[in-house]
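Incident review: delayed structure delivery

Summary: a single-chain prediction request sat in the queue longer than the usual turnaround. Root cause was a stuck worker, restarted by the on-call engineer. No data loss occurred. The affected request and its eventual output are reproduced below so the record is complete for anyone auditing the incident later.

Affected input:
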Amino acid sequence: MNIPNFLTSFRIVLVPVLVVVFYLPFEWNYLVSAAIFFLAAVTDWLDGFLARKLSQSTPFGSFFDPVADKIMVATALCILVDDFHTLWITLPAIVIIGREIVISALREWMAELGKRTSVAVSIVGKTKTLAQMSAITLMLLSPIPVMNWIGYAGIALLYISAILTLLSMVVYLKAAWPDLSPFKSHSEKRSK
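Output delivered after worker restart:
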């Protein structure tokens, strides 16, 4: 177990902690939930940085790092949808979670074809992740009855991240389209 793998595992452990703290009946639950999510976002960046810097990339980290990110983001979006209880938060959350499912399936499919690198993370995907993490942190900071500029900034960033989410999905699908084309048979795709 190296430091990047420890940070990835720690991020997964933070998921149930985030949920429990968010639903605690105390005034500070929003602040602590935002701090937990922010800590998870920082470990997301830090584990990747350390894995590259210390040459400690492992199959465990390669697999679990994106899984940990998706679990944390999907969980946080679900509790925010429950908290805000409005279509205007639910719609971008559906877009973001739906895109993660599509891209995960696409990466698995491309890996099966031996072309995983053709759907590697792009600059749009990295920008999308930054916008998502920022949006969720700001929205967790803002209690619903007392919406303030922090909450509204979070909602604006959530919509920006939903747009970036769709754009990054288009980039990935475009890169994979030659192998997904309905005009190729499954055996032709495997033979290449």
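Verification: The two ends are 37 Å apart (CA to CA).
Action items: add queue-age alerting; document worker restart procedure.
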